Amino acid sequence: MRVELLVVEDCPNEGPAAVVLRRALDEVGLSTVRITTRVVTSQAEAEQLGFLGSPSVLIDGRDPFAEAHHRPAIACRLYPDDTGLSGVPPLRRLRQALKQAADATAR
Hints:
Shape: globular
Number of strands: 5
Number of helices: 3
Strand order of the largest sheet: 2-1-3
Oligomer: single chain
Helix content: 25-40%
Low-confidence stretches: none
CATH class: Alpha Beta
Distance between the termini: 13 Å
CATH topology: Glutaredoxin
Number of domains: 1
Order of helices and strands: EHEHEEEH
Radius of gyration: 13 Å
């Protein structure tokens, strides 16, 4: 499984997102999976990657939080969670996405 954390330079949520992502991987039994961090530097690169803002998580090249109405952009990203909006992906949904990807890989 390939897990990438995509960010813009100096993203204040890069560290917290990395912590949540590592926790989610550990909690679903994927503690050996390495997280690669990539800094997105241009709009063209954002469009090529489908980067919907910083931070974004790609699991095997797919953004599990992508929504059709969002467009690639060099911008901050907010995620809806139980308490409103957060600058990091919600742990519960991240665990679900990782489990689904692991199950698909195992087939």
